Amino acid sequence: MIKFFRSIRQRLLSENKFSKYLLYAIGEIILVVIGILIALQINNKNQERINRDYELTMLSEIKEALNKDIYNLEGGIKNLEELKQSVIVLTTVRNGSTYPKDSLDHHFNNVRQGGIALAINYSPYESIKSTGLDKISNSELRNSITDLYEVKLKAVEFWVNEFIRRKLYEKNDLVDAIFEKKIIPDTTDGIKVEYIINHELIHTNDQFDDFLVASGGYIPIAVRNISFAIKEMKSQAKEIASELKKN
């Protein structure tokens, strides 16, 4: 093809047809420019496809992480509800009722050790954040994802974890102050701490009220905060699913 165009130029020059040569040269330049523009357009289309494929992959990973976190948080609420039932049992005993020792020990240990720690999976969000959040082409979706991970989830995670952590320390201090303990050998951990609990002590020790407040007072607030997080995460997962269907 190059030889063909070169032969045309040489023939026009040899025949002194300068005006035709000039028109031909201009036409050739136009053809080259058109070729470059077509190549750029193809390259841009390929890059757009690559960017979109990456965007969809990362959105899918965020959606999957959200669904797993939702499952874990719902399990956390279930644990808190079970903990609440044990607190209710101990409160009933405190108010004068009696329970079999095995049941009492079970509920006491459940309350003493009870608590949850939120651990949100930020990895997919941080991955796309590190390459540029502008990779998410839908601006509304980009803003809602950023707001969820940077504001809402961090606030809930900090509040629940920090508040429960402090209550766990408070509970442990009260348990040590109220109950006698004995150390027994344990094949797994070497030693095991058991607290001696009885109805009389629960009925007469005023610090047991503080123990119940520290153990159960935070549960309704924690459940509300976690439920809020679940609601926001489900809404976000739904938005992402709608975006994925566009492709």
Give the helix/strand layout.
Elements: H1 2-14, H2 18-94, H3 101-113, H4 123-131, H5 139-178, E1 180-186, E2 190-196, H6 199-204, H7 207-216, H8 219-245
Antiparallel strand pairs: 1-2
Helix pairs in contact: 2-3, 2-4, 2-7, 2-8, 5-7, 5-8
Describe the structure.
The protein has 247 residues and is mainly alpha-helical. Helices cover 79% and strands 6% of the residues. The protein contains eight helices and two strands. It has helices spanning 2-14, 18-94, 101-113, 123-131, 139-178, 199-204, 207-216, 219-245, and strands at residues 180-186, 190-196. It has a two-stranded antiparallel ribbon with strand order 1-2. A hairpin with a 3-residue loop joins strand 1 (180-186) and strand 2. Helix 2 packs antiparallel against helix 8. The chain starts with a helix and ends with a helix. 20% of the residues are buried. The mean pLDDT is 85.
Helix content: over 70%
Number of helices: 8
Shape: rod-shaped
Integer average pLDDT: 85
Order of secondary-structure elements: HHHHHEEHHH
Number of strands: 2
| Radius of gyration (Å) | 35 Å
- Helix/strand/pairing class, anyone? mainly alpha
Query: N-to-C terminal Cα separation, in Å?
Result: 40 Å
Report the biggest beta sheet as strand number plus sense, adding barrel if it closes: 2 strands, antiparallel
Low-confidence stretches: none
| Beta-strand content bin | 5-15%
Strand order of the largest sheet: 1-2
